[in-house]
């Protein structure tokens, strides 16, 4: 492990639910603290993230104004609150996560004269295309990219995709894989006990996924795929772990397809390691991803994975080697892949074993923390950093602050 970086560091993120980006942020804060660094968390409301961070020994600042939804008044208040913290706490480096916190946090840090600014791109905020939303996002990211020292991408394939967006010079992009705490993935209950508790003792195959119920995850596609397999697999069950704004719409899809006895909505759970053990197939139907944190955890648990070919997923899921990869928004292709894995035990075991080894090689928390420490040391050791002088290409704070609320 590299030598600890001197000076106070802040990680900034919006929602405090424990989704993939939040878990990455929490693990980063915990790992950097354990390595002897002075790290604080700034986050928005809505979940247990600040309290979990505090139990790890971190100072956590909860900002009620820092919300994911676009709200110009609250966004400006959040911008000013983050700037105030930057000045009061005298951060040497601010590391932001996700789109909204990334825009507001980086502008606030630059405005406050923080010596170094880092942003992690966990994934596209939506499916990028030739529309107004995409143009606004890219314009804002290019503006804020001018005051960002490094953009961290959670996978190498994803880094190349981000480079194609043109939001910052490629020299500013770096790959640091999103780390996982392997010990936290140890099941506490046996497979049979967990199945019995869920009422799934007689189910087979059990297809599972762990996801926020949002547009990005395209879970209606997965539901349609599973519905198409019921005649071939009458004991099939789909287990959806997680919650989100699209739950009512997804429940309506289940009713429309007449498969209420096939699809199980579990909501948010704190026993994901146990649940992964009961899945015969882990399926991911996303329209966009960075790499896919929950999918990675399924691979670490040895589950055979069927996933859509989006973002950096293909870096972990090599078709036919560490899983099966299919096009997004194609229920028939997804159904065929699920059926292939469920019907071939030898294939399932081979994919699960190879996937676990691939994930373990790339996604350890120690590796992530070491890479972050090296990055921070590199930035703070540059001659211009210690004085607090800002970078070239100044941008008007009013322009950035006013426009930061236009996107999530």
The CATH class assignment of the largest domain is Alpha Beta
Please name the CATH topology of the largest domain: Rossmann fold
Query: Strands of the biggest beta sheet: in what spatial order?
Result: 3-2-1-4-5-6-7
- Structural class estimated from helices and strands: alpha/beta
Q: What percent of residues adopt helix (DSSP H or I)?
A: 40-55%
CATH architecture of the largest domain, by name, is 3-Layer(aba) Sandwich
Average pLDDT for all residues: 90
Q: How many structural domains in the coordinates?
A: 2
Walk me through the structure.
The protein is an alpha/beta fold and 408 residues long. It has two domains: 8-179 and 364-406, Rossmann fold; 187-362, Glycogen Phosphorylase B (Rossmann fold, 3-Layer(aba) Sandwich), CATH 3.40.50. The protein has helices at 20-34, 49-55, 72-89, 99-111, 132-145, 156-165, 191-198, 219-228, 247-257, 272-276, 293-300, 313-316, 331-343, 345-362, 365-381, 397-403; strands at 8-13, 38-43, 59-62, 93-97, 116-121, 150-153, 173-175, 206-210, 237-241, 263-267, 281-284, 305-308, 324-326. The strands form two sheets. The chain has a seven-stranded parallel sheet with strand order 3-2-1-4-5-6-7, sandwiched between helices. Helix 4 (99-111) links the parallel strand 4 and strand 5 (116-121). It starts with 7 loop residues before the first strand and ends in a 5-residue tail after the last helix. Mean pLDDT is 90; it is low at 384-408.
